[in-house]
Amino acid sequence: MLKSISKKERNRGGERMVDCIFCKIIKGEIESQRIYEDDKVVAFKDIDPQAPTHLLIIPKVHYSNLLDIPEDELNILVHIHSVAIKLAKDLGLADKGFRIVNNCGKEGGQSVDHIHYHLLGGRQLTWPPG
Ligand code: AMP
Fold first, then answer.
1. Do the domain assignments include residue 128?
2. Quick check: is 22 in a domain?
3. Can you give the residue range of the structural domain that contains 52?
4. Which residues line ligand 1 (CB under 6 A)?
């Protein structure tokens, strides 16, 4: 069962945050190819791209996954979607189409424990995913 941590813990760099690879990317401790940043999110290129465009959009506040976001902070998801739409347009994906994916938990295929949305485009994507 996933244990929630308080916002205070998240922002103060609680233990789970210190070990988090995406928190390290946000802090610049691990290199990334950053495409976009604002006060709430960072977007960077996926290290193992599955399409010509493959970005990850992550909140600066550490949430493990969808289940870890307190109800009164769910508006971060709207913001992530609005950034994904902006980037898709800026990168020329809007005409042909693109995909936004969130993998949640083990059977959902989540491998990094900091919520992230994949933005994929630039080739014909198939469905369902494996
Ligand atoms: P998921 O499997 O949905 O949890 O996605 C995690 C994604 O993070 C994968 O597509 C990885 O290729 C990507 N990833 C892992 N480490 C890094 C990194 N240091 N920089 C960029 N992308 C990464």
1. no
2. yes
3. 7-121
4. 21, 30, 32, 46-48, 56, 103, 109-112
Condensed to tens digits (0 to 9), the pLDDT of residues 72-127 reads 999 999 999 999 999 999 999 999 999 999 999 999 999 999 999 999 999 999 99
| Nearest ligand 1 atom, CA 103 | 3
Q: What is the CATH classification number for the domain harbouring 73?
A: 3.30.428.10
Task: Report how many domains make up the chain.
Answer: 1
3-class SS string, the chain:
CCCCCCHHHHHCCCHHHHCCHHHHHHHCCCCCCEEEECCCEEEEECCCCCCCEEEEEEECCCCCCHHHCCHHHCHHHHHHHHHHHHHHHHCCCCCCCEEEECCCCCCCCCCCCCCCEEEEECCCCCCCCC
Active site annotation includes 62: no
